[in-house]
């Protein structure tokens, strides 16, 4: 009898069926990591400036598409606390459609914003963040981010009548894609301030037209290789909304006439992608980019220090006396006009796809440290290593739950999946017409290549001939007086002097040295470099 042995395979462990690959989509993370600041007894008195030091560091491992996170910054509004119920946003403006901001719309009437960050509209990403100014003079109908362009919304220069920033520094370029830094900053501080200064006299109301106040909100920077004012908003930038919409109630209510209201500050986590996948059981999981913070040997990330509010005694009074023939001030902010704010904080909340995220507070929390600085501190046993934001989340009904990497099922493919990198954008361009050529530059064009790989083209304009001023019918005497004042400022205020008080701790970040320029011979005072184009340095545009 023939026996035939049939060998059956041994039982094998169950292998999960292949899953669909992770899909990338938006709304991966949203929230604010912020602080509140103690207010001075008289907010109006100390409403003429705000300064602080904000940490700069590389937040993400590589430049990513559709990614926007603002590092710790500030927000300044005109002080309209006397308005209880009348709309400041005229019918027809974008902000007026935001009904939840009524009845006054004071929080979206006019603002000064900006700061350090990664902006979705950046065309030339390179790793670290950039610094950019920003303002919304007309209820968010448009924003002003540089002397020629909006806040990353368009590569074409703003229309002449919407220009608002006057280039003041004759040593620093202000490109539309923001100011890059040298090397890889890792918690180094950039100091910056917004100070109201009286570059021009107030203009009274005439013939039904709105008055214009004397406040030229001026941006000062404090970096390792540059210190001083870089630009200011022309006062008419704020007052002309009243004439455009024929709203007499808005006369004298803009940032040209009112002191600023300044509260705390925050990191705004705005636009973060996510990768989403399902496991073998059909449950969804998600992953966001790895977000890194600069921690010290005590597990702390110090993000903000030396928040100070300033009165007119800080610099305004000396500056006005100088304009009227007095001695030149050093430009350093006087401690007689300072209110050093005590900081307060609270645990932040985050959401994904509009649903609350749970578990982040078990990984890190905000803290005010003994020296008065503010930042983050990591906890033991959290869902991410020290200095990292939780990266993985389990989807549950009505919420997302932060989990550690080893809790994510391997079949999701999330561990290895990567995010879409950022590409290079089109060139920022300015028109060869209007305010850019009439009266036009005195020298140039010149070019330089920045550390972000972009090529910047710039021309030297006589200060009063730069594009922003050409929309106004100023008298020759007013233009002459402002031109002469700026010439004196260029001679008296160098870029290696402290204007802001030095930081309590830490070191200052270095700006990209390619931003620093020297005026041509004969143009050492009274001329400024105006960027007219920014393009990819490897493509020629």
Note the main attributes of this structure.
541 residues, mainly beta, 13-stranded mixed sheet, 6% helix, disordered N terminus
Describe this structure in words.
This protein has helices at residues 236-244, 316-323, 476-492; strands at 23-25, 30-37, 49-57, 68-73, 76-78, 111-118, 130-136, 165-167, 186-197, 216-222, 227-233, 260-262, 265-271, 274-278, 284-287, 300-310, 338-340, 343-345, 350-352, 355-358, 364-368, 374-378, 392-396, 399-403, 428-429, 443-449, 454-462, 527-536. It is mainly beta. The protein has a domain at 27-182 and 190-269 and 311-329 and 427-536. The strands form four sheets. Strands 1, 2, 4, 6, 7, 13, 14, 15, 18, 19, 20, 23 and 24 form a 13-stranded mixed beta sheet that branches. It is globular, with a radius of gyration of 26 Å. The N and C termini lie far apart (87 Å).
